Amino acid sequence: YLSRTFPYFGDYGEGNPQLADLAADLDKLLAGEKGAAEAFLMNTVEKAAAELKGRDLESVEAELLLPGSNGPFEEAVRGVLRASAGSAPVSVKASSLKTGRTVFDKEKAFTWEVDDAKALLKEKLRALVDTAGKSGGIDVSLGVSESPAVREKVRKEVEAFLGESGFPAAAVEVLSAYKPGFFWLTERILPALKGKGVHRLTIRFAEEREDFTRPKRAYAEPGRWLQELYPVDEILSRELGIPLERVEFETGGPGGPVYRIEAVDDKGAVLLEQSFTPRTRAIPLSNVLPEWGTARTTCGWLRVEAGGTVVCDVPLETDLEKFWGFYQEDVLKAVVGHVRKKTGEEPTFSKQPYFKRLLVDLQASEPDYRIGLDEEIISSLEAIHDEIYFDTLDLLRGITRFDPEDKDIAADTSRSSAPGNVLPSLHPSLEGGPAKARVVLEDWPAPAPQVVLRWKEKGHDPVSRKVVFPTLKPKDTRATELVFDGRSGRVGNIVFESEWEKEADYLTVIETLGAWRKLFEAGLLGDTLSFPQLDGVTVRLRWQTQEKDERLPVVFVPGANPAPLVPPRPDEILVTTRDIISPAMAGDIVRRLSALKAVRSYIGGRSYEGRDVPVLELYLPLEKYVSLPRLVTFKPTLQAVARQHANEVSSTNYLLRFAELLARDPEAREALKKMNFVFQPMENPDGAELAYGMQQNEPFHSLHAGRYGSLGVDIGYQTGTKPLLPEAAVRTRLYDRWLPDIFLNLHGYPSHEWVQPFSNYTPYLFRDYWIPKGWFTYFKALNLPIYGEHREAGKALMKLIAEELGANAEIAASNRKLYDRYERWAGRWAPHMNALEATDGVLIFAKRKGPTENRLTPRARMTFAEQTPEVMDETATGDWLEFLCEQGLAYLRAHVKYFGRAGFQVVRIEEEGRERIRLTLVRGRPGRTEGR
Q: Do the beta carbons of residue 440 and residue 102 sit within 8 Å?
């Protein structure tokens, strides 16, 4: 057994039930799962029933809150109470901790900004007549946040209204309140310049000035008004037929208009010169935390001139401004109120999550369309999605404080905070009409299993008693004994020793485990300890000098037999590179890949919501028993993780496709002779499932609500052996199992501009992702001269990455275009923040940018390069996804080529001591590349 099966119980092989899984289940049992809650609560009920026996009762009630539904247990509780209640009626109700309860449900209907403008115009009609007289000339400028089609319709309606009111010659323009500078240039200036022989355009914009003596949560960037024009230069160049370099941007001096444009012909004569200043208003960054300061947002307007006299010139609230005011004042204040009440006015990280889900469902008429330039879109709907998601998470982080239990949390708490699931649900634009919103806050019914008992005795006041499953945390629990029965071929017993600090906890556990056995024997536990070839487990409890053994029986309940694995047909491609892969699809693909030689797959863990986290391991030899330490010693390993941020969709596609090629393509399969591969194609299945559902309504949005896991926390920042999100532990276990030479964390980012209009326009938490910059990677390796071999290995790998990506003409051309665009719009204006770092024409960010230097840590000794490649895949489908997968495959091939060229020296060390001989094999890392 020890040589062929241990540490597994049934069959040898990663993914099969093993000793570590049993230890994890015992942890769950002490937390109230695996039947412990039922056992504890039954003890409570039986004690109460004994207390009630013989009393003259009028009624008995019990409300049970269990980890999951358990009808037989509920009926058993009813029976215990009936036996003591005499003729009194008995009521027992059970519910699940997993079922959310509604904290609040708010609905709000808003007036449409266009209707507001029309009503105001009607109100000013008398003033128009008095000023201009009937048939007089008037000019109307209206700014609303609507699509071009809706604004054109509104313009015609306003013209018709004014014509019917006696102003048939009224001049009406309806501009956009969202990205007003962009639309001013494309809808007013561009038509005026067509056919005029424009040679050069100069667009001057005002710098945004902030008072840095006043602390704020986020400041606007100096180039904010330039940012609002993105990507207008290429549109003007294309439509006017002039080279892109002749569309110039300059910063304007202090004062004056926000925008000024000058168009000249080839002789330098001015063809047109105009200016424009968008309407803005200052709003709080947070109504809950006013000390965070303010932001400036563009708003709508109505300006009416009659006979040269301004009759009306007022700002108008756009639909999204109205919604945002409602969300800040009515929703977020209520959310924070719930959090403060729940945490006793002391929100801390150890008390998270604060709620189960905050659903924000919004329907509105807004610009939301592709603009015909690569993957660029104009969408205030996507922008409000991002405001809802990131601002809410940031606020909840902002009200959260540290307490002694938070000592292991990183100083950067922005991604360690786990308040709950924030879910903005947006719908396609209404294309006319008022917005409406519904916001529902759900919480778990309680933090732990509990029972509430109520009874009424004749002649006495009603009694209510609430008992909650206690927090049971031993000082230490470890497996110390394993008994194998050679006659039956089974593990007869495993002993776990458990040290307890408090006598009360020690006695509670003894009592609970005793009740657990009774419920087990009665068949009243729905979820128990289930392991193959294991008879039982003994928990040896210790408190000071006292010791007690509690044996728990184990019965294996096999799951459904999976369908037999059928190898794919020779012409069948298993992995799509054109469609987004959901968690269920990824699981199916992984199972089908398992039918191929050299592919080993298993479930590495399960997510917070119970979804599978699949793992692929590809290596030779193919035998069942392979010494992993020897394998890692003689061959380097590449570990790759996909979908940490689950809305970054492409990595699952190209990583699984790469695995398929390694298993099926003869040339690619040669790599298995020289290296090992460990792939995690779906690290965040809960977020992926969320994003997959959202794409139905928001097909080309970034879907950032799927970025993190179920609780609004970044999986990559969940460290330790027992993270809040269990799926986060899979990556760590794989790393410890394989000790890879190179670790790749495959990422993506928006394929278009990322706007947050109520946070000074750009995403203040992710400023360097404001606009795309093509394919790039962050490359972490030792770079100090004293680490010569590591430094040279890093350079060699970077060169291969650049060569492989540059070898594809389409990829190279796309990157050049996007790098140039980023430099024009971002790098040029803020080089301290947006500098590009290229290796042979490919962006590889390898220079130190943080406060600490990379050092030769134990991890760096094993893993000489850790990378985070980024592709523009939020959210990619069809041809664009296929193109991004080509980039991903080229990137992975570069690593295969690196390992193929690198030489690794393995030395044999023979040592003697204490009458023993020890042989050790050691492989030097990193490998030595050609020419070194």
A: yes
CA-to-CA distance for 69 and 555, rounded, in angstroms? 20
The three-class DSSP label of residue 756 is strand
Q: Which amino acid is at 557?
A: V
For 363, the enclosing helix (H) or strand (E) is strand 357-363
- The helix (H) or strand (E) run that includes residue 900 is helix 878-901
What are the average pLDDT values for consecutive 10-residue runs of the chain, which has 932 residues? 95 94 96 97 97 95 96 97 95 95 98 98 86 76 98 98 90 98 98 97 96 93 97 98 98 90 97 98 97 97 91 97 99 98 95 97 98 98 98 97 69 72 98 99 96 96 96 93 95 97 97 97 94 97 96 88 84 97 97 94 96 97 94 98 98 99 95 98 98 93 96 88 90 97 98 98 95 98 93 96 98 98 97 93 92 91 97 97 99 97 95 94 88 47
Confidence (pLDDT) at 406? 61
CA angle in degrees (0–180, nearest 5) for 332-335-336: 90
Q: With residue 148 as reference, give the H or E element that holds it.
A: helix 148-164
The string of DSSP codes covering 602-613 is EEEEE-TTS-EE
Other Cβ atoms closer than 10 A to 904? 18
Alpha-carbon torsion, ordered 289, 290, 296, 299, to 10 deg: 90
- CATH tag for 587-806+850-896 (out of 3.40.630.10, 3.30.420.40, 1.10.240.10, 3.40.50.720): 3.40.630.10
Do 706 and 687 touch, CB atoms closer than 8 A?
A: yes
**Distance between CA 640 and CA 646 in Å, rounded?**
15
Measure the CA–CA gap between 258 and 268, rounded to whole angstroms.
24
| Nearest residue to 582 via CA among 611, 609, 560, 553 | 611
Residues in the chain: 932
3-state secondary structure of 133: coil
Instruction: Report d(CA 513, CA 106) in Å as an integer.
Output: 45
Distance CA 442, CA 683 (A): 26
Domain locations along the chain: 20-99+448-550, 102-107+323-443, 110-320, 587-806+850-896
Bridge-partner residues for 200, per DSSP?
Answer: 264
Residue pointed to by tokens 């990677």: 777
The verdict on whether omega for the bond into residue 926 sits within 30 degrees of 0, i.e. cis, is yes
Sequential DSSP letters for 184-198: IIIIIIHHHHTTS--
